[in-house]
Design goal:
Blueprint lengths: L6 H12 L4 H11 L7 H12 L7 H10 L4 H4 L8 H9 L3 H8 L6 H16 L6 H18 L6 H24 L3 H18 L2 H17 L3 H14 L4 H17 L2 H16 L15 H15 L2 H14 L10 H17 L3 H11 L7 H19 L3 H16 L4
Helix pairs in contact: 1-17, 2-3, 2-4, 6-8, 7-8, 8-10, 9-10, 10-11, 10-12, 11-12, 12-13, 12-14, 13-14, 14-15, 14-16, 15-16, 16-17, 16-18, 17-18, 18-19, 18-20, 19-20, 19-21, 20-21
């Protein structure tokens, strides 16, 4: 039977059930997060039932209380539309196509429309990270990074020079991320160091913070969990109130979860949640270096899976897949969705559903856009669960062979 309720109403039910709460329990949780007295218990329980039924949308005040009670952020539960077409913006703002931008870069002077077109081009590339094939994005990113580097030898004003350095810093971050996705750790670290240098020259705390976040990410996939915590805290000290601080808190939470410290995991997640809740809603949800609200569910999913909280991890995995898929089935966030499927595979193993676990595991390996270090890291959790309970099954051995082939094919540099 289909569920015609709004997605947010379905999620209220799923999140409550995952915690084993009654409707009375969840209302008590609302009270614990409320800064002022709320109406009577019977009244709020009736109201909650109407919310779960999708009959009424909660007010902004109650939306934030519900998000806090469920350990997420308001715009993850009640999303706002936000999408920009970078290519269209280039044309609309400057009237230039890519070829004309390149031709203008070879001129002796850099005018304002060309610089604006460059900014939007960098923004477009960062917004294509989630779905553009890695090799293609890497090639384009390196080409534009070289063009920006060549600009430094031209006649630039002080403000133009600063903007070029800023743009080069963002592109270096993007190129480094894709290099890491493709398993090229040596190039990744060199590019990350370049981003650090550019961020320092431009005095750009955001670029510096993301460069340290990349270090934390790399440490996480290599099993250096103390290194994650050090990198995350270093980046947070540099950019404590910026969007990157949310992701740094998430990386720290993931590390604590793998260390096995539930309390520190929750502390880090809650710090990130509060930071994100206090920030403006992003204009461009597709930009890789913007922490969109739905990404917080992805962070929490990883932590709860690692801690063995299967019900919560499964509920969040379904939400990650739903939020990352368009109405026509197109996957806007294939890398997040792949990890969500691995999560569902892990919970399926734990519930005794071997066929379901293997189906999720195989599906996670088929995406054309992958982050190999992250995919292999979370897949090892599914591998461990399969070996513990179903190692002698022929289907298990086939899946383990597929995963082994993927790991062997990844560059080891």
């Amino acid at each position: 039977m289909s569920d015609d309720r709004p997605a947010w109403a379905q999620r209220l039910t799923a999140e409550r059930n995952a915690r084993g709460w009654s409707q009375s329990d969840v209302v008590k949780a609302l009270r614990a997060h409320a800064p002022k007295p709320l109406p009577s218990q019977p009244h709020l329980v009736r109201q909650w039932k109407r919310w779960e039924a999708g009959e009424h949308t909660p007010s902004a005040y109650y939306q934030s209380l519900i998000a806090a009670a469920l350990g997420t952020v308001t715009r993850a539960l009640f999303p706002e539309p936000g999408h920009r077409d970078g290519a269209a913006e280039v044309s609309a703002v400057s009237g230039m196509e890519t070829l004309e931008i390149i031709q203008r870069l070879h001129s002796s002077d850099l005018d304002a429309p060309t610089l604006e077109a460059l900014r939007i081009t960098v923004d477009r590339l960062c917004s294509e990270y989630a779905y553009l094939p890695g090799e293609q994005l890497l090639s384009e990113g390196r080409e534009w990074l070289q063009r920006l580097a060549n600009l430094r030898s031209q006649r630039l004003t002080l403000s133009q020079h600063r903007e070029v350095i800023n743009l080069a810093g963002w592109l270096a971050l993007l190129v480094g991320c894709v290099e890491n996705d493709l398993g090229d750790r040596r190039s990744f670290e060199a590019t990350r160091q370049a981003a650090l240098s550019l961020g320092s020259e431009a005095e750009n705390a955001d670029v510096l913070g993301w460069a340290h976040e990349m270090r934390a990410w790399s440490c996480l996939t290599r099993g250096d969990y103390r290194g994650v915590i050090v990198a995350a805290r270093t980046g947070t000290d540099i950019a404590p109130h910026r969007s990157v601080a949310v992701q740094l808190a998430a990386q720290e939470a993931k590390a604590w979860a793998r260390i096995g410290d539930r309390r520190q995991t929750e502390v880090a997640l809650d710090r990130g949640r509060k930071l994100l809740e206090g920030q403006d809603h992003p204009d461009n949800l597709d930009h890789h270096f913007v922490v969109d609200p739905s990404k917080f569910d992805f962070y929490a999913m990883d932590c709860y899976r690692t801690l063995g909280e299967d019900a919560l991890a499964e509920a969040l995995a379904h939400e990650v897949i739903r939020a990352g898929t368009d109405f026509d089935g197109t996957e806007r966030s294939p890398m997040r969705i792949a990890e969500a499927r691995i999560t569902l595979g892990v919970t399926a193993v734990h519930s005794g559903d071997l066929d379901g676990a293997l189906a999720y595991g195989r599906q996670a390996l088929t995406s054309q856009r992958q982050s190999l270090p992250s995919l292999l890291m979370v897949s090892r959790e599914l591998t461990s669960a399969l070996r513990e309970q179903h190692e002698n099954e022929a289907a298990t051995q086939i899946y383990l062979g597929q995963l082994h082939d993927l790991a062997v094919a990844a560059p080891q540099a």
